[in-house]
Task: inverse folding
């Protein structure tokens, strides 16, 4: 929030590049999602908080991807349509390749659990399981107040995402930014 509070007023008083226009939109959306996740965690809605990790991570990856592959801003300007723009798993693989990470971890392996939650696949069941008493389990529809492990997992996953978003604020709007 602090980095955004510094950068946002500056961005309103300058002529923005296409990359900076994209960043203004995506960073604001990412911060909004992060604040929603924070509130859901505070209220105990861990299942919904975890679902929102996928769109937050996607925004983080878009920022990083377009920073590393600035030539693809035209795809963004055309609407970032399916089939034209790279999908999340593809962007993750290209980022790893750019950083010369070997071996490259397949993007779909990175996104599998997030996609399972988003698309209600069977392996997402653990995120809303509750004790019904007597050794029985069921699928909860409300708050999960007795699962600190799930709370910790969501928080642990969001921290590096927020760090990268913060770095992208500096990359796109810092004094040395070229995009």
Result:
């Amino acid at each position: 929030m602090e980095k955004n509070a510094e950068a946002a007023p500056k961005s309103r008083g300058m002529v923005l590049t296409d990359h900076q226009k994209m960043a203004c939109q995506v960073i604001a959306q990412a911060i909004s999602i992060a604040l929603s996740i924070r509130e859901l965690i505070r209220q105990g809605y861990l299942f919904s908080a975890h679902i929102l990790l996928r769109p937050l991570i996607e925004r983080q990856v878009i920022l990083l991807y377009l920073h590393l592959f600035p030539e693809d801003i035209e795809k963004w300007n055309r609407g970032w349509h399916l089939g034209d723009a790279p999908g999340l798993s593809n962007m993750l693989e290209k980022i790893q390749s750019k950083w010369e990470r070997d071996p490259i971890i397949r993007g779909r392996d990175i996104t599998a659990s997030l996609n399972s939650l988003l698309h209600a696949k069977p392996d997402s069941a653990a995120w809303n399981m509750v004790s019904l008493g007597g050794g029985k389990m069921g699928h909860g529809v409300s708050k999960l107040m007795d699962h600190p492990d799930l709370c910790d997992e969501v928080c642990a996953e969001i921290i590096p995402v927020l760090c990268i978003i913060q770095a992208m604020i500096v990359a796109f709007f810092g004094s040395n930014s070229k995009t």
Remarks:
- Residues 2-82+148-173 form one domain.
